[in-house]
Design a protein that fits this description.
Shape: elongated
Helix content: 25-40%
Structural class: alpha/beta
Largest sheet: 4 strands, mixed
Number of helices: 4
Strand order of the largest sheet: 1-2-3-4
Distance between the termini: 86 Å
Radius of gyration: 31 Å
Length: 188
């Protein structure tokens, strides 16, 4: 297996492809994936390195996978309007990529569809804090649940150790009584 592909599979490098990704239409400079009902799950994982313009408008994209546009050195514009962007943690890569673009006016129609408090906002102008604040709730719940589970396991272990100690002391006492009774019977 090619080492570049292996590294890409490991997530270190975004892939580029020499052919036109399915279901898009391509020319030398333009990759048109608009109106293809694409979601994050069925979005092409790579684009041709010669692509200067990529059309992803009017699909069902809620975010863009991390690094998707990073190795496209010829890329000049990506048309992203008309998608239901969810401005949660998964949008951080797209926001960062948009902020590095020279012609931000091209992206003024790339707006949040959800969550409600960010609806209609231009993604490129969102602060990181606004996005991160939408992400932390389930992390906190998961952390709390993990800590609670560990606490319950610790209590169960403590109860088990106490029961073992009580049983061993009782067993030792019974063993001592049996020995003393055996010795008394042996002396009679």
């Amino acid at each position: 297996m090619n080492s570049g592909i292996l590294l890409s599979l490991l997530g270190f490098l975004p892939l580029v492809t020499p052919t036109c990704p399915v279901p898009c239409r391509c020319t030398t400079r333009i990759t048109d994936c608009s109106l293809k009902n694409l979601t994050v799950e069925n979005l092409p994982t790579a684009f041709r390195p010669s692509a200067e313009i990529i059309h992803l408008a009017s699909n069902r994209l809620t975010s863009i996978p991390n690094g998707l546009f990073d190795n496209l050195r010829s890329l000049q514009a990506v048309y992203l309007q008309g998608n239901p962007w969810e401005c949660t943690c998964d949008i951080l890569y797209l926001r960062s990529w948009l902020q590095w673009q020279q012609n931000r006016s091209l992206y003024r129609d790339v707006r949040c569809s959800s969550p409600e408090h960010l609806q209609g906002r231009i993604i490129a102008y969102l602060t990181e804090d606004e996005i991160v604040s939408t992400c932390q709730h389930w992390y906190c719940s998961l952390a709390l649940l993990s800590q609670l589970s560990l606490f319950i396991l610790l209590i169960l272990q403590t109860v088990l150790v106490i029961l073992i100690i009580v049983y061993l002391r009782k067993f030792r006492r019974m063993t001592a009584e049996v020995r003393s009774t055996t010795q008394e019977l042996g002396h009679q």
